[in-house]
Amino acid sequence: MSDAMALAQERNQIFDDLFAGRIPKRVPVSVNLPIEFCIQYAGQDLADAQWNTEMLEEIFDKACQDFASDMLPVLAFRFPSFYKLLGAKNFVMSSSGFLQHPEVEGLAREDYDAFIASPFNCIMEKILPKLYTELDKDPVTKAMTLAKAFKAFHDEMGHAGMVYGKLIQKYGYTDVNLFAGFCEAPFDFVADQLRGFKGISIDVRRMPDKVEAAAEAATPLMIKMGVPPVPSKHASTFIPLHMAPYLREKDFAKLYWPTFKRLVEALAEAGYPSFLFAEQDWMRYLDYLEELPENTRIMFEYGDPKLAKEKIGKKHIISGFYPVSLLKTGTKQQCIDKAKELIDILAPGGKYLFNLDKSPVTLDSVNVENLQAVLEYVSTNANY
Predict the structure, then answer these.
(1) Which of 6, 73, 119, 375 could covalently link to 68 via disulfide, CB atoms 3.0 to 4.6 Å apart?
(2) Around Cβ 383, how many Cβ atoms within 10 Å?
(3) Which residue ranges run through the membrane (predicted)?
């Protein structure tokens, strides 16, 4: 058996234990280095590498060589080609080479009723032409544009998937895929792509019944989107959680939580646990999160790790909390000490996956040597 195969078996066993509620041999380590970080780390041009994905294998391989992780540490799920073909307004390549998500409004306030009555038809007929200029055309041109964009999407993602497979085999990573599926909380879908942050914030105060009904209407679409074709205990559906920290708790309880809970429960029933990214501070919602299906995987950005461990650490798998900002400003020893602190709080009893509180998008957002030191420390010292 090769060293890579043996390492993969060991890592798979660690994650088997983690997901089954057993205490693993050691704390598993994950780091998510987005495509922009990896390109900069490899010394390549951001725009060139995102348009020419033949460069990705060499770029990602360098990151795999230099950053310790039990899971594949690189990730790319947006490329400019298909957004350009669609004339996208919601994802736009900046002059600096970063795909950005500007504030958009795909659903006018007066179109709520149309969305509630038939969300799919409303998306196709009203929302997509507003978000994608090349779909605001005659039917033949629209069909051709969609065909080209889907071809580009499958070409780009297919090539990336091939690269991932080669690197997983080469470096003996676990076959766990926390991003096997993707969807949004129904409220977040309405806020993020349809109404925009400003629009939904006004709507919550002025027309909450419409917002509630729109989230209900979006829920079946999010369930369908979030269920990948083949259930697997080593996979999960990624759900980034956006708007909840900006809501009053009474609005969260009425408008956000019911459809979100139903989504996570439906995914679990289909054989797919959810991997939630609790953006901002979710500490006031921990009692809600405790109600979700057992072993839901929750990555926290900010908050109190002790409180999270106390409230949900016996039921759910916790990750995150490690501040990327410290990797930029701290000494190497301070960074390692912070890792020790979080391990002491979150590792007892298992159900802990070490990773950062967010992905470092730019190379200068961290001191690379600090990040490497922390990952290496946890990989070799966080034994049970």
Answers:
(1) 375
(2) 9
(3) none
Q: Which two tokens stand for residue 114?
A: 């149309």
Helix (H) or strand (E) holding 15: helix 3-20
Residue 121 has pLDDT above 60, yes or no: yes
Instruction: Name residue 77's amino acid.
Output: F
Categorize the per-residue pLDDT at 101 as very low, low, confident or very high, splitting at 50, 70 and 90: confident
With a cut of 90, say whether residue 360 has pLDDT above it: yes
Q: Minimal CA–CA distance to 351: which of 13, 17, 6?
A: 17
45-94 pLDDT, tens digit each: 998 899 888 899 999 999 999 999 999 999 888 899 999 999 999 888 87
Of all helices (H) and strands (E), which one includes residue 240?
Answer: strand 235-241
237/231 Cα distance (integer angstroms) = 10
Query: Which one-letter DSSP state was computed for residue 290?
Result: T
Distance CA 384, CA 351 (A): 12
What pLDDT is recorded for position 1?
57
Q: How far apart are CA 68 and CA 11, in angstroms?
A: 13
Length of the chain: 384
62 CB contacts (<8 Å, ≥6 apart)?
38, 41, 42
Contact 350, 329 (CB under 8 A): no
Contacts 24+ apart (CB under 8 A), 54-61: 54/159, 56/159, 56/160, 56/163, 57/163, 57/166, 57/167, 60/163, 60/164, 60/167, 61/167, 61/170
- Cα separation, 223 vs 262, in Å, equals 9
Among the listed residues 183, 253, 179, 260, the one whose alpha carbon sits nearest the alpha carbon of residue 215: 260
Strand-pairing partners, residue 74, are 33
Write out the two tokens for 351. 């159900």
Contacts of 21 (CB under 8 A, 6+ apart): 294, 295, 350, 351
Looking at residues 95-113, what average pLDDT do you find?
87
Check residue 285 and give left, alpha or beta (phi > 0: left; psi -120 to 50: alpha): alpha
Residue-wise pLDDT for 307-347, tens only, equals 999 999 999 999 999 999 999 999 999 999 999 999 999 99
- Distance (Å, rounded) from C-alpha 245 to C-alpha 250? 12
* In 149-234, beta strands by DSSP E: 177-182
